[in-house]
């Protein structure tokens, strides 16, 4: 078949049309294989998604991708991740490709990992999760925080990574998915793109998927790819680009405008959920995230509180294992603002006056439950001074569960607003004065590098904000517990 550059995919009963859909002509595609597999994975793709998968799978006479670069600027809740999950799952599990799935936020990385586990299971031989047809394709997994990957009988691999300046990647890749591409910087691509130069398939594909570049962001890669698509010419010869969106902010509540730019409205996209999400956003942000609006210029970037450079100064090459009676340990637990994931930090002090070692053993989605966290904390009151737990209603439920298990007095702490502010100040000051040390951890490093200032209360207090602030906030809570708790975990006490 031959497809024209100007064809416009749509879904039956949906009037949305892309602002730009640029693609090359081709006669053959392996995208149909992915579409045939989608229902067995639990995905029913709409026409616009199916057309894009076919175009992504377009191959020339040499069986190489017609589109080595793919870009999609599609609004929130429209289903771009769904079509990518299907495409990547088939590439890795069927065709034997090694794929890197990379996100800007660790919370999104966990969400994407969960989607693939719903297909392949969380571990080899998993009988409680995944689809029977696809579970048997999984032969090996790594579930270490920040280094998760899956290997398949085909020889294919999917590795999940949150983008940092020093991302540690364990494979050479044939395909890279840049999810949340609106936050992608040249520093990230400088680290990641070279991993594709020796891919086994010698058939590279780079996929950029996101929403319009946010006002205030200094990320430039996605905007540059978009500019090439709109300009055309030689720079866009290898590029497949799909963009839905409005050309001005306008009336964000005009549903007639939604229908013209949201390709999955009435199908995957729920109008009520979109309206609810927009209510807590300003008009520009809502237009960008839900209406696909690309502003002509960005506002000044908001700097992070700690930043990657300062955080790197506290890095040590290897973890220190403390032993002996002088060791003091405390834990910090922070639920993300939306309650979707939870971070657990550990602060360890060997002797007074020495630096505190910070670590982040866990950062997990709450959709998978928190019983594991209750059990982990309940087993350690004789090892740690206390655990400081924060994060709206989820924190209360965790504390209630620990109390029901009869934890010793003083072991579980709930910080007041003033104490939460103090915890943020503690970790910031400790990073500045080099009073803490840490080893590489992608989730924690990203959190420290990107979290910005968030106002708390009305008296000038502040804490950490941003999409991935929970890990660094958990470290602050652990420091607070280590400093303020008077409890001696080795002292024998009667447990009620």
CATH C-level label of the largest domain: Alpha Beta
Largest sheet: 9 strands, mixed
Which stretches of 5+ consecutive residues score pLDDT under 50?
1-13
Strand content: 15-25%
Distance between the termini: 74 Å
Which class do the helix and strand fractions yield?
alpha/beta
CATH architecture of the largest domain: 3-Layer(aba) Sandwich
Write the CATH fold name of the largest domain.
Answer: Rossmann fold
Shape: globular
Polypeptide structure, described:
The chain has 496 residues and is α/β, with parallel strands linked by helices. It has 2 domains: 20-291, P-loop containing nucleotide triphosphate hydrolases (Rossmann fold), CATH 3.40.50.300; 308-484, Nucleotidyltransferase, domain 5 (2-Layer Sandwich), CATH 3.30.420.240. It is 33% helix and 19% strand. It is built from 16 helices and 19 strands. It has helices at residues 31-41, 47-56, 80-93, 106-120, 132-135, 186-192, 221-231, 255-261, 271-279, 283-291, 308-312, 371-378, 392-404, 417-433, 442-450, 470-484; strands spanning 20-22, 28-29, 58-59, 69-73, 98-103, 138-142, 149-152, 157-162, 175-179, 205-210, 239-243, 328-335, 341-349, 356-365, 387-390, 412-413, 436-438, 452-456, 461-465. The strands form 4 sheets. The protein has a 9-stranded mixed sheet with strand order 1-11-4-10-9-5-8-7-6, with helices on both faces. It has a 6-stranded mixed sheet with strand order 16-15-12-13-14-17, sandwiched between helices. Helix 1 (31-41) crosses helix 3 (80-93) and helix 14 (417-433) crosses helix 16. The longest helix is centred in the C-terminal third of the chain and has 17 residues, at 417-433.
């Amino acid at each position: 078949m031959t497809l024209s550059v100007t064809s416009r995919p749509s879904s039956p009963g949906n009037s949305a049309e892309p602002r730009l859909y640029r693609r090359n002509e081709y006669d053959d595609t392996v995208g149909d294989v992915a579409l045939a597999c989608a229902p067995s994975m639990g995905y029913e793709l709409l026409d616009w998604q199916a057309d894009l998968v076919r175009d992504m799978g377009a191959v020339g006479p040499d069986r190489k991708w017609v589109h080595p670069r793919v870009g999609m600027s599609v609004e929130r809740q429209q289903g771009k991740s769904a079509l990518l999950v299907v495409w990547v799952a088939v590439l890795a599990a069927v065709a034997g490709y090694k794929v890197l799935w990379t996100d800007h936020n660790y919370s999104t990385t966990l969400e994407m990992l969960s989607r693939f586990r719903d297909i392949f299971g969380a571990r080899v031989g998993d009988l409680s999760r995944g689809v029977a047809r696809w579970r048997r394709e999984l032969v090996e997994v790594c579930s270490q925080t920040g280094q998760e990957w899956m290997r398949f009988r085909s020889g294919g691999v999917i590795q999940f990574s949150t983008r940092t300046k020093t991302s540690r990647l364990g494979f050479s890749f044939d395909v890279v998915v840049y999810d949340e591409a609106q936050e992608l910087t040249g520093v990230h691509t400088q680290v990641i793109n070279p991993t594709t130069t020796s891919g086994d398939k010698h058939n590279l594909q780079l996929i950029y998927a996101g929403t319009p570049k946010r006002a205030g962001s200094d990320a430039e890669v996605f905007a540059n790819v978009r500019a090439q698509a709109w300009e055309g010419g030689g720079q866009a010869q290898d590029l497949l680009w799909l963009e839905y969106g409005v050309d001005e902010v306008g009336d964000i509540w005009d549903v007639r405008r939604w229908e013209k730019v949201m390709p999955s409205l009435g199908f995957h996209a729920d109008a009520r959920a979109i309206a609810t999400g927009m209510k807590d956003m300003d008009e520009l942000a809502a237009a960008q995230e839900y209406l696909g609006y690309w502003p002509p210029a960005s506002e000044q970037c908001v700097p992070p509180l700690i930043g990657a450079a300062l955080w790197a100064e506290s890095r040590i090459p290897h973890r220190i294992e403390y032993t002996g009676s002088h060791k003091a340990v405390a834990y910090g637990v922070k639920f993300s603002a939306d309650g979707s994931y939870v971070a657990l930090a550990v602060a360890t002090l060997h002797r007074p006056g020495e630096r505190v070692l910070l670590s982040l053993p866990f950062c997990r989605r709450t959709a998978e439950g928190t019983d594991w966290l209750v059990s982990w904390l309940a087993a350690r009151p004789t090892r740690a001074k206390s655990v400081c737990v924060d994060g709206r209603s989820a924190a209360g439920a965790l504390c209630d569960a620990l109390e029901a298990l009869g934890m010793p007095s003083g072991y579980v702490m709930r910080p007041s607003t003033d104490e939460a502010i103090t915890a943020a100040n503690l970790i910031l000051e400790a990073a500045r004065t080099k009073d803490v040390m840490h080893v590489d951890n992608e989730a924690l490093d990203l959190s420290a590098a990107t979290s910005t200032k968030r106002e708390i209360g009305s008296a000038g207090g502040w804490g950490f904000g941003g999409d991935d602030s929970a890990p660094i906030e958990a470290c602050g809570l652990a420091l607070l517990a280590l400093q303020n708790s008077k409890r001696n975990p080795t002292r024998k006490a009667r447990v009620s």
